Amino acid sequence: MKKWISYGAVAVTAAFLFSIRPVSAADISRYGASVTATQEQSPWQIRVRALGVMPRDDGKIYGIADSGLEFSKTMVPEVDITYYITDNLAAELILATSYSYINGAGSLDSFGNIGRAWFLPPTLTLQYHFTDYGRFKPYIGAGVNYTIFYNERGNRRPMETGRIHGLNIGNTWGGAVQVGFDYMLDRHLGLNFDIKKLYLRPDFDAMLDGKLISGKAKLDPWLIGAGITYRF
Q1: Which residue among 2, 32, 44, 128 is least enclosed by CB atoms within 10 Å?
Q2: pTM of the entire structure?
Q3: Which of the listed CATH numbers 1.10.8.60, 1.10.1740.10, 2.40.160.20, 2.60.40.10 matches domain 41-231?
Q4: Where are the extended beta strands (E) located within the chain?
Q5: At a CB cut-off of 8 Å and minimum separation 6, what does 54 contact?
Q6: Residue 39 has what pLDDT?
Q7: Contact 46/190 with Cβ under 8 angstroms?
Q8: Which of 124, 135, 140 shows the shortest CA–CA distance to 189?
Q9: Inter-residue contact 82 to 45 (CB < 8 Å)
Q10: Distance from C-alpha of 100 to C-alpha of 205, rounded to nearest angstrom
Q11: How many C-beta neighbours within 10 Å does residue 65 have?
């Protein structure tokens, strides 16, 4: 009886071994792709930054010789949304709003504060991300912005040179360039540093003691931000 049990065990073992086929390259490819798919990240990413807005001090009022303009610097929050088209190529929408006090310069120095305006410059950039540096992920980008000015306010207080009111700054298109990096702490969370340059030169007009004046503000601000990246 033991002899037959032994023969049976050998037969079952042999049948089992012959039923196992070698793992093919197709199997490895299929199973590997399955594992990789579970590890792929979402193409969506969001960043939140503290943003320093530093406009260029340049501009003029037409018809006034040696006129100049100066603009105050501000610190504001910024949110941007990124969509990865490929591992290297991404599109980013940058959203922030800021304000600036406008002061006279040059022959307008005696005006002091001319007014204040808020601006919203939504900016869309196309970025190239370098992926060969591990956790350190630098990128460059370029794109366009459309800047909307709102809540413009002329300084109506009496001045030696008169009163300014009815300040109106025209919305305008402009270019944008960008460089920055993420340092990823894990697959999702990272630290970000980013520098952008907007080319922003709106026309404006206002009333000075009942007389219409107009000019151009050459803001061209640097936007320097630092914050947190989250990759979904």
Answers
A1: 2
A2: 0.78
A3: 2.40.160.20
A4: 44-54, 59-61, 67-71, 74-84, 89-95, 98-106, 113-120, 123-129, 136-154, 164-169, 172-184, 189-198, 203-208, 211-217, 222-231
A5: 73, 221, 222, 223, 224
A6: 58
A7: no
A8: 135
A9: yes
A10: 16
A11: 8
**Do the Cβ atoms of 120 and 86 come closer than 8 Å?**
no
Query: Are residues 148 and 113 in contact, defined by beta-carbon separation less than 8 angstroms?
Result: no
Q: Which DSSP category does 108 fall into?
A: T
Token duo for residue 175? 């270019």
Three-state SS at 211: strand
Single-letter residue type at 13: T
Largest CA distance in the chain: 122
pLDDT in tens, the chain (232 residues): 434 434 444 443 344 333 444 444 454 444 444 334 335 889 999 999 999 999 999 999 999 999 999 999 999 999 999 999 999 999 999 999 999 999 999 998 888 888 999 999 999 999 999 999 999 999 999 999 999 999 999 876 545 556 788 899 999 999 999 999 999 999 999 999 999 999 999 999 999 888 899 999 999 999 999 999 999 9
Domain borders along the chain are: 1-40, 41-231
